[in-house]
Every structure is written in C-alpha cells, then in structure tokens.
Design goal:
Length: 291
C-alpha cells in the first residue's frame, strides 16, 4: 500500500520506456511491504538539470540515471564519490536532507558493483591482478568498469575502441597511472586479445540488434566473455563466443547487480534475495527471453 508518507525513487532517461529498473525495484518493494514506489521519468536532455533541481526534495529520495544523462548527473551534483570524480559519469543521484538548508544532491555509481556481480557469476575465482582484461568501448560505462577493475587489482587493461583517440583519451584520463593500461583500435584487435582472460563489451554495439563488433576469433578458448548489453539477452557477441566455447555472462546480471546497492541507498534496507523474489525471471519474461 502506498500512503502519503511513501518514499519515491525512480529512473530518469530519454527514452526510458525500455527500462527494466521499475520492474526490479517495485518487485522488491512489494516483497518487503515497503511504503514506497519506483517510477520512470522520461526527461529530454535540455530539461534534465531543471528537472533535478525542481524535484530533488520532499518524498523523492533519489534517482537512477540512464542514457543520455549520466554526465549531466555528475555535473548537477554538489557531492560525489571519489570513483566518479575520475569517470565524470553517475548512475545514481541521492537527495540528502540538510537541516535548514536546501537538499544536497549526491552522485555516485553502482555500475562497478553490478559488473563485479556479473563477472563473479561466470568466473568466481578470477584474480584481476593476474589477468589480462580487454574492455571494448571508451564511453561512460567503460570508464566505470576500468576504474572498478583497477581498484580491485587489475594491472593489464586493454581498451579497444572504434576510434583509437577515444581509447587513448580514456587510457590517460583515469586516476591510477601505475597500471599497464593500453589503447587499441578495432584493427589492432588481435594484439589486444592476445592472452586475454576476460573480454567485456562496454560498447552499445548489439543493442536492439543494431551495430556489430568485429570477430573475436583471436581470443584463447578459456577467456570469459561478458556483454553489458542485455536487450537482446544473447547478443551476437555472446552467441559467437559461446559457439567458440567461451564461458559467457550477459548484461542482465550486471543490471540486477547495480540495482541492489541503489535500492538499499534509496530505501535504507537491502532488497530481498533471489530465493524470495526472482527478479531475473521477471526481467526475462519482460524481455520475452528464457535462460
Ligand atoms: P556511451 O554512449 O557513453 O558509450 C558508448 C560506447 O560505445 C562509445 O565508446 C561508442 O563509440 C561505442 N559504440 C557505440 N556504437 C558502436 C558500434 N556500433 N561499434 C563500436 N562501438 C560502438 O554509453 P555507456 O558507456 O553509458 O553504455 C554503453 C552500453 O552499455 C549501452 O549499451 C548500455 O545500455 C550498456 N550498459 C549496461 C549496463 C548494465 O547494467 N547491463 C549499465 C550501463 C550501461 P563512439 O564514441 O565512437 O560512438
């Protein structure tokens, strides 16, 4: 039941109707019997900052942020975690009460935690320090992923992008300078994949079946392949990897993994475990997919 004292959270994007976050969070809210609701907000880019400044307060406790607002979310905040200071992109805004003053907007990212859950589901024992990790893409979530992998020991990170300049900019733009981080273009993929233990697609290629990545045949069969894209669930990138015998992990594992800490930040309680609410099954049903 929702009362006048309900806590409100949501996801803001443009478009946002494809988002699975309302399904996930409201299933958890219902299972816990919270006086709360999680709603989608479709906000065009030129209205984002005004929307946040007008609505951050009252019952709205926070928002997840999706494309194309992640950089604007970083910029609108008054306080930020150290991790996102490096990446310039946020997927979570929290609105904090300050006695006698306007609410504070705090920005952070839970994408790293989501990535960790997803990787561990396919490679529970992987040691980042001893692994060669290929990250395809040089956008916001690639930056968050690299920052997370390096925070947990990654020292051999290979950034591969269709524009080598973007890969180089990311190579030089992150906080840790001691790690061996290299930049490659797609036509240098063979060198980038040499000895790789983990290959992560952090590009938008394959989203809704649009765009295709080059063949990854040069990877050794033991390498784990992960795709952040989850619609469709089995992208061509993952289907090809599975056909070559690689262990694979899809983007839904990451989506649910990043939603869990967001939920706890909004409502002050952890979401129920999968045995209580199987949000993956709910998402698969919404996507028209099966495991
Ligand atoms: P950005 O727009 O910041 O970056 C997109 C990146 O993908 C850029 O490097 C871009 O290259 C590259 N790219 C786009 N199309 C192609 C293509 N056809 N071939 C090669 N490279 C391409 O987006 P984000 O980093 O925020 O997100 C990237 C993807 O990750 C999205 O699909 C998003 O849905 C997904 N994602 C999934 C999450 C999850 O929980 N599963 C969480 C966050 C994101 P260029 O700069 O040259 O255009």
């Amino acid at each position: 039941m929702i009362t006048g004292a309900a806590k409100v959270a949501g996801v803001v994007g443009w478009p946002v109707k494809h988002s699975l976050s309302p399904l996930i969070h409201n299933a958890w809210i219902e299972a816990l019997g919270l006086d709360a609701v999680y709603v989608p907000f479709a906000v065009p880019p030129d209205e984002f900052t005004g929307f946040i400044e007008a609505h951050c307060g009252g019952s709205l406790v926070g928002l997840n942020v999706t494309l194309p607002h992640k950089t604007a979310a970083y910029e609108v905040a008054q306080t930020r975690t150290e991790a996102i200071e490096q990446t310039g992109s946020a997927n979570l805004l929290l609105f904090r009460d300050r006695v006698g003053r306007r609410r504070e907007i705090h920005a952070q990212s839970t994408d790293g935690e989501g990535l960790e859950v997803a990787i561990r589901s396919a490679a529970p024992k992987i040691e980042y320090m001893e692994s060669a990790i290929v990250v395809l893409g040089a956008g916001g979530v690639a930056a968050a992923a690299i920052d997370h992998l390096e925070l947990y020991g990654g020292e051999d990170i290979r950034i591969v992008a269709r524009r080598k300049g973007a890969a180089q900019a990311l190579r030089h733009g992150l906080r840790r300078s001691s790690v061996c981080r290299r930049a490659f273009a797609f036509n240098e993929l063979e060198a980038a994949l040499d000895g790789a233990d983990l290959v992560i697609n952090a590009t938008s290629a394959g989203l809704n079946g649009v765009g295709e990545l080059p063949a990854m045949d040069a990877a050794s069969p033991e390498a784990v392949f992960m795709d952040m894209v989850y619609s469709p669930l089995r992208t061509k990138f993952l289907r090809d990897a599975a056909a070559r015998g690689h262990p694979t992990v899809d983007g839904l594992a990451m989506l649910i993994g990043q939603a869990r800490p967001s939920f706890e930040a909004f409502f002050g309680v952890p979401p129920p475990p999968p045995e209580v609410v199987d949000v993956r099954a709910l998402c698969l049903n919404a996507l028209g997919e099966t495991d």
